[in-house]
């Protein structure tokens, strides 16, 4: 979808028939991919509508939400398993601290490289903040 075809959560709610609360629940529960952007700037595309259609179809067949999440994870793993030997896998690994690194597998998490980097930077800030708190507490 082009940027003019991206939907706000209100628009996605109208088109899909799901409440905004349900959409957020599905995103947080791993049923629905995260939108691009954050909070009021979050935008959804055709893939989100397709995922909602699939969720509804599976629910009508009696699948629980937990089982749908499990099926989605299995699908991601099958994509990785079908890859040709030697085919590149987009992985970004960011060392954080001795013994700690963050690894993003783009084919699984569905994030763009800039999104992965932004998330890793935020994680690094949290770790630095926690270390600063510990150091401050030790001084006191």
C-alpha Rg (nearest Å): 19 Å
CATH architecture assignment of the largest domain: Orthogonal Bundle
Total number of strands: 2
Strand content: 5-15%
Q: Percent range for helical residues?
A: 55-70%
Alpha-carbon distance between the termini? 55 Å
Q: Could you give the order of the helices and strands?
A: HHHHEEHH
Q: What's the helix count?
A: 6
Which residues sit in consecutive blocks of at least 5 with pLDDT less than 50?
none
Major pleated sheet: 2 strands, antiparallel
Mean of all residue-level pLDDT scores: 79
The count of domains is 2
Give the CATH topology of the largest domain: Multidrug-efflux Transporter Regulator, Chain: A, Domain 2
The main sheet orders its strands as: 1-2
CATH class of the largest domain: Mainly Alpha
Classify the oligomer: single chain
Structural class: mainly alpha
Q: How would you describe the shape?
A: elongated
What are the main properties of this structure?
mainly alpha, Multidrug-efflux Transporter Regulator, Chain: A, Domain 2, 2 domains, 57% helix
